[in-house]
Amino acid sequence: MVNLSLLHRRRAFLLYASLFTCSLAHAATKWQDPTPEELSMTSQPQVPGAAAVILYREETVDDSNETWSYYYRIKILNQAGRDRYSNISIEYPSHSSGDTFTITSITARTIHTDGAVVPFIGKLFDRLIQSSSSETTREKVFALPDVQVGSILEYRYTVQLDIKVLAFGYSVETFVPSFYIQTDMFARKEHFLWHTNQRSVSYSSMLPGGLSAIKITAAGPGYTDYTIDRDNVLPVPDEPYMPPLRNLVQKVIFYPRMPSSIHTVQEYWDAYGKVWSKSIDDFIGPPSKLAAAAAEITMGASTPEEKLRKIYAAVQQMENTNFSRERSAHEKKILGLPNPKSATDVLQQKRGDGPQLTTLFVGLARAAGMQAYLMAVANRDTGNFNPQLTTFQQLNDNLAIVELDGKDLFFDPAEPFCAFGQLYWPHSYAGGLRQTASGVSLATSPALTYKQSETRRVATLTIDPSGHESGTADLSFTGAPALRWRQSILFDDETALHKNLETYLQDRLPANTEVAFQTIDNLHDSEKPLIVHFQVSGPLSSLAGKSRLVPTQLFQLNQRSPFPETKRTLAIDLVYPERILDAVRLQIPSDWQVDNPPAPTTYSILTLPAAYASHAQLTANGVILRRDYILSPTVVEPNSYPDLRNFYDEVASKDQEQLLLHIKPASTVSP
Fold first, then answer.
1. What Å distances lie between residue 313 and 34, 131, 419, 523, 581, CA to CA?
2. Which residue has the higher pLDDT, 540 or 586?
3. Exposure b/e, 174-189, CB count within 10 A at least 16 = b
4. Which CATH number fits the domain that encloses residue 439?
5. 401 in the same domain as 455
6. Taking a C-beta distance cutoff of 8 angstroms, is the pair 91, 5 a contact?
7. Are 438 and 454 within one domain?
């Protein structure tokens, strides 16, 4: 499936209803006729074995009518390309603050190698693919007709922006686009254009040739065209666990030029930060407006922490419109649900988008007598914050900060099922701008630790004389892995969750093991571990002569090192630190015994840091096999890749060890 927003998943945060960073291309006036060479080509020399290449790609942002458009021509080179690119998905944000992105004029066709044209006359499908505390992402999907190896796929569409209501009534910056030059395919030719009447524009180029790659021309009264033309653009790197693509690809980022009265980067963030902070405070209003509600919510609480926990729980129970079904303007009118213009509106409706709920949480904390602030951060799933790039468009999510016992605690109240005092992982160690008691300042949110994200896997099994196992397996998740499983029910039902959990366990056990979901505990209680219970049965052991071999690390039997490559050019993004604890309690037949159990093992890499330990403990009727895995870093630089690779190689080798079981020798009785 072609994802046309591969590099631009998230939209800017609460103030910027207009800051949609997906640059969309100008719809060409007519289709391009394929050349004989394009029809007959079977490969691209610069990318041997490529599944497909972009013959032409065009993107335009037109400020005169607030539209973006795409135009793509893709050549399918092999069956993998046909399978991957014959379905087109167009991602777009869907937001409740009043701004809408209407996708129009979708046209497409398939061209066969003989030049025959098959127009697209099929159906468009719209579906939700992602929600977060700051936005909901939907996609329109359609399949190109009769795609074959050698076909040329051609399609275009326009996006119309309709800004009706800014979330807080303030617009700190005017919209400016960003052009991401590389995609996952080699591109023979690309053309980008921004037609704008904005006069104070700066730009940053990460292209060969730097700023000289951007052509600037007058385009009629008051308008300027910024044009970028590129030939033979290599695809984005493809390595496992890559950092966000926005950090890696060739790109041109536009942003408003600093006023002449502002001379330094710090002055920019101070000045614009004050405008941003005022809009937050105006939305919240004086604490007295929320005082009665805060008192009711915190009734019975005796300490500031107890009060804050009650406020956090109350906000999390409200409808988060980034995760719920989008209502039409007609429905909102009938239900009396206007777009909230203040924290009081959010409270009265008991609903709001992510930024509004986070801001309400801050307001209620203030009303309860606490020092509370908002922080705008760059979501690490899409890119890192660069303070030298003087634009608020980098900041696309929000956190709450509350001072308790002299310490700043960070909260993510708009992330469903995010536990009190924890952060959704892309919001951890994220740079941004925060309110303070004296104004605003640049800041970084706290990093997660492995102690906050823990997975425990415990199996209690009995092996019969034939080598067949049966018993139970219990999985326990806290922190980031628990949040991932819990949030999955926001997009699908619990039956699908049960099946996905079965698959998770099945993929880690010996082949032909039967896994049956039993029950799940604390699914909706984020303050407790998420615990899942299974029944398992199957062929645990294998014959080795008259003995049997049993894997020492049952849950890792099918896992291999994720880093087989000897060299690495990019940093490794391991998402979040975690700890995994395994225990397998194995009961064997009374006439069997364990032969030479493996010695205890510990292995660590202090430079990462990472650690591994395994241990076999003999019992009266079997053995207990334990494993402890800890990975602390979030990002590993390429120069530390050899250490990381060696660590995973050692762990994988140890995880594949086998336990030898055999029948005890018959007792010798003297005559």
1. 59, 20, 9, 15, 30
2. 586
3. ebbbbbbbbbbbbbbe
4. 3.10.620.30
5. no
6. yes
7. no
Q: Give the SS3 label for residue 630.
A: strand
Residue 593: domain span: 450-663
610-631 mean pLDDT? 94
Query: CATH number for the domain including 124?
Result: 2.60.40.3140
pLDDT greater than 90 at residue 451: yes
Which tokens sit at 474? 């219990």
Residue type for position 581? L
Residues 429 and 547 in one domain: no
Residues paired with residue 473 on neighbouring β-strands, in sequence order: 459, 534
Query: What is the tally of structural domains in the chain?
Result: 3
Count of CB atoms situated within 10 Å of the CB of 212: 9
Same domain, 435 and 383: yes
Q: Give the pLDDT confidence score for residue 66 in this predicted structure.
A: 84
> CB count, 10 Å around CB of 243?
16
Q: Residue 252 pLDDT > 50, yes or no?
A: yes
Q: Are residues 427 and 545 in the same domain?
A: no
Question: Is residue 36 classed exposed, middle or buried when 0-12, 13-18 and 19+ CB atoms within 10 A define those classes?
Answer: exposed
Spatial distance between the Cα atoms of 620 and 660, rounded to a whole number of angstroms: 17
State the CB neighbour count (10 A cutoff) for residue 196.
22
DSSP alpha helix (H) spans, 194-240: none
Distances (CA, A) of 598 to 80, 547, 604, 654, 657: 44, 16, 18, 10, 8
* DSSP element (H, E) containing 167: none
pLDDT, residue 13, reads 26
Residues forming beta bridges with residue 259, ordered by sequence position? none
